[in-house]
Amino acid sequence: MPYINLQQAADATGKSIRTIRRLCNSPTSKDYITYEDGKLQVEVSFLEQNYPMVNMPNTGMTPKNNIGQSHDMANQVPVPNGNSHNSEKLIHEIEMLKLELKYRDQITQEKDKQIELLERSLLMLGEGLRKDQEKQELSLEENEPATKKRRWWQW
Protein backbone atom coordinates (compact mmCIF):
# COMPACT_ATOMS: atom_id res chain seq x y z
CA MET A 1 0.00 0.00 0.00
CA PRO A 2 1.19 3.53 -0.63
CA TYR A 3 2.35 5.77 2.15
CA ILE A 4 1.70 9.50 2.43
CA ASN A 5 3.23 12.14 4.64
CA LEU A 6 1.42 13.94 7.47
CA GLN A 7 0.46 17.01 5.43
CA GLN A 8 -1.06 14.88 2.66
CA ALA A 9 -2.90 12.80 5.27
CA ALA A 10 -4.29 15.92 6.93
CA ASP A 11 -5.45 17.26 3.55
CA ALA A 12 -7.02 13.93 2.58
CA THR A 13 -8.97 13.49 5.82
CA GLY A 14 -9.73 17.11 6.63
CA LYS A 15 -8.14 16.63 10.07
CA SER A 16 -5.28 18.60 11.56
CA ILE A 17 -1.69 17.45 11.38
CA ARG A 18 -1.69 17.13 15.18
CA THR A 19 -4.66 14.70 15.00
CA ILE A 20 -2.88 12.58 12.40
CA ARG A 21 0.27 12.62 14.55
CA ARG A 22 -1.77 11.41 17.58
CA LEU A 23 -3.11 8.56 15.45
CA CYS A 24 0.43 7.64 14.41
CA ASN A 25 1.63 7.67 18.03
CA SER A 26 -0.99 5.16 19.17
CA PRO A 27 0.39 1.65 19.88
CA THR A 28 -1.87 -0.01 17.29
CA SER A 29 -0.50 2.09 14.44
CA LYS A 30 3.12 0.92 14.63
CA ASP A 31 2.61 -1.54 11.74
CA TYR A 32 1.18 1.16 9.48
CA ILE A 33 3.71 3.95 9.79
CA THR A 34 7.25 4.34 8.50
CA TYR A 35 9.94 7.00 8.37
CA GLU A 36 11.44 8.10 5.06
CA ASP A 37 14.12 10.78 5.02
CA GLY A 38 13.30 11.51 8.65
CA LYS A 39 9.64 12.21 7.87
CA LEU A 40 6.68 10.27 9.19
CA GLN A 41 4.72 8.36 6.54
CA VAL A 42 1.23 6.84 7.07
CA GLU A 43 -0.30 3.97 5.12
CA VAL A 44 -3.38 5.14 3.19
CA SER A 45 -5.54 2.11 4.04
CA PHE A 46 -4.87 2.57 7.78
CA LEU A 47 -5.83 6.21 7.47
CA GLU A 48 -9.08 5.22 5.68
CA GLN A 49 -9.93 2.80 8.49
CA ASN A 50 -9.72 5.53 11.12
CA TYR A 51 -10.93 8.68 9.37
CA PRO A 52 -13.17 9.17 6.33
CA MET A 53 -11.38 10.51 3.29
CA VAL A 54 -12.57 13.97 2.26
CA ASN A 55 -10.06 14.30 -0.58
CA MET A 56 -8.13 11.48 -2.19
CA PRO A 57 -4.37 11.74 -1.59
CA ASN A 58 -2.22 12.08 -4.66
CA THR A 59 -0.56 8.65 -4.57
CA GLY A 60 -1.48 7.36 -7.99
CA MET A 61 -4.68 5.76 -6.72
CA THR A 62 -7.97 6.54 -8.42
CA PRO A 63 -11.26 6.82 -6.55
CA LYS A 64 -13.40 3.74 -6.86
CA ASN A 65 -16.76 5.23 -5.96
CA ASN A 66 -18.63 8.47 -6.47
CA ILE A 67 -17.81 9.97 -3.06
CA GLY A 68 -14.05 9.82 -3.50
CA GLN A 69 -13.46 7.11 -0.93
CA SER A 70 -11.74 3.93 -2.01
CA HIS A 71 -12.85 0.51 -0.85
CA ASP A 72 -10.60 -1.69 1.24
CA MET A 73 -8.49 -4.15 -0.69
CA ALA A 74 -10.03 -6.99 1.34
CA ASN A 75 -13.47 -6.31 -0.18
CA GLN A 76 -12.23 -6.70 -3.72
CA VAL A 77 -12.56 -10.10 -5.37
CA PRO A 78 -9.73 -11.10 -7.71
CA VAL A 79 -10.92 -11.46 -11.27
CA PRO A 80 -9.21 -14.11 -13.39
CA ASN A 81 -7.51 -12.60 -16.41
CA GLY A 82 -8.66 -15.28 -18.83
CA ASN A 83 -5.99 -17.74 -17.82
CA SER A 84 -7.92 -20.97 -17.19
CA HIS A 85 -5.05 -22.50 -15.23
CA ASN A 86 -5.05 -19.58 -12.81
CA SER A 87 -8.83 -19.72 -12.32
CA GLU A 88 -8.71 -23.50 -11.80
CA LYS A 89 -6.01 -22.99 -9.23
CA LEU A 90 -8.15 -20.41 -7.40
CA ILE A 91 -11.21 -22.68 -7.50
CA HIS A 92 -9.14 -25.57 -6.14
CA GLU A 93 -7.80 -23.36 -3.34
CA ILE A 94 -11.35 -22.26 -2.44
CA GLU A 95 -12.50 -25.88 -2.29
CA MET A 96 -9.55 -26.82 -0.08
CA LEU A 97 -10.34 -23.94 2.28
CA LYS A 98 -13.98 -25.04 2.46
CA LEU A 99 -12.88 -28.58 3.38
CA GLU A 100 -10.52 -27.25 6.02
CA LEU A 101 -13.33 -25.14 7.48
CA LYS A 102 -15.64 -28.19 7.65
CA TYR A 103 -12.89 -30.19 9.36
CA ARG A 104 -12.34 -27.44 11.93
CA ASP A 105 -16.09 -27.27 12.60
CA GLN A 106 -16.16 -31.02 13.23
CA ILE A 107 -13.22 -30.81 15.60
CA THR A 108 -14.86 -27.92 17.44
CA GLN A 109 -18.09 -29.89 17.85
CA GLU A 110 -16.18 -32.91 19.17
CA LYS A 111 -14.31 -30.71 21.64
CA ASP A 112 -17.58 -29.14 22.82
CA LYS A 113 -19.08 -32.60 23.39
CA GLN A 114 -16.00 -33.71 25.32
CA ILE A 115 -16.07 -30.56 27.47
CA GLU A 116 -19.76 -31.09 28.23
CA LEU A 117 -19.11 -34.70 29.22
CA LEU A 118 -16.24 -33.70 31.50
CA GLU A 119 -18.32 -30.96 33.12
CA ARG A 120 -21.10 -33.44 33.88
CA SER A 121 -18.56 -35.88 35.31
CA LEU A 122 -17.10 -33.18 37.53
CA LEU A 123 -20.55 -32.27 38.80
CA MET A 124 -21.28 -35.89 39.63
CA LEU A 125 -17.93 -36.30 41.38
CA GLY A 126 -18.39 -33.03 43.22
CA GLU A 127 -21.77 -34.13 44.59
CA GLY A 128 -20.30 -37.47 45.68
CA LEU A 129 -17.40 -35.75 47.40
CA ARG A 130 -19.74 -33.37 49.21
CA LYS A 131 -21.82 -36.26 50.52
CA ASP A 132 -18.69 -38.06 51.75
CA GLN A 133 -17.45 -34.90 53.48
CA GLU A 134 -20.81 -34.40 55.19
CA LYS A 135 -20.77 -38.00 56.45
CA GLN A 136 -17.23 -37.57 57.79
CA GLU A 137 -18.15 -34.34 59.57
CA LEU A 138 -21.17 -35.97 61.21
CA SER A 139 -19.11 -38.95 62.37
CA LEU A 140 -16.40 -36.66 63.78
CA GLU A 141 -18.94 -34.63 65.72
CA GLU A 142 -20.43 -37.80 67.25
CA ASN A 143 -17.04 -39.27 68.20
CA GLU A 144 -15.64 -36.17 69.89
CA PRO A 145 -16.16 -36.20 73.65
CA ALA A 146 -17.27 -33.00 75.31
CA THR A 147 -14.07 -31.26 76.37
CA LYS A 148 -13.63 -28.64 78.98
CA LYS A 149 -13.26 -25.16 77.63
CA ARG A 150 -9.63 -24.14 77.74
CA ARG A 151 -8.68 -20.83 79.21
CA TRP A 152 -5.56 -18.86 78.56
CA TRP A 153 -4.45 -18.64 82.18
CA GLN A 154 -2.97 -21.63 83.90
CA TRP A 155 -4.11 -21.26 87.56
Radius of gyration: 34 Å
Give the strand content. 5-15%
User: Tally of extended strands?
Assistant: 3
**Treating each run of at least 4 consecutive H or I residues as one helix, how many helices?**
4
Tally of separate domains: 2
Task: Name the average pLDDT.
Answer: 77
Structural class category? mainly alpha
Give the strand order, joined by hyphens, for the main sheet: 1-3-2
What is the molecular shape? elongated
Q: Main β-sheet: number of strands, strand sense, barrel status?
A: 3 strands, antiparallel
**Overall helicity:** 40-55%
- Helix-strand pattern, N to C? EHHEEHH
Low-confidence stretches: 61-77
Distance between the termini: 90 Å
Describe the overall structure.
The protein is mainly alpha-helical and about 160 residues long. It has two domains: about 5-75, no CATH class; about 85-140. It is about 55% helix and about 10% strand. It has four helices and three strands. Strands 1-3-2 form a three-stranded antiparallel β-sheet. Helix 1 crosses helix 2.
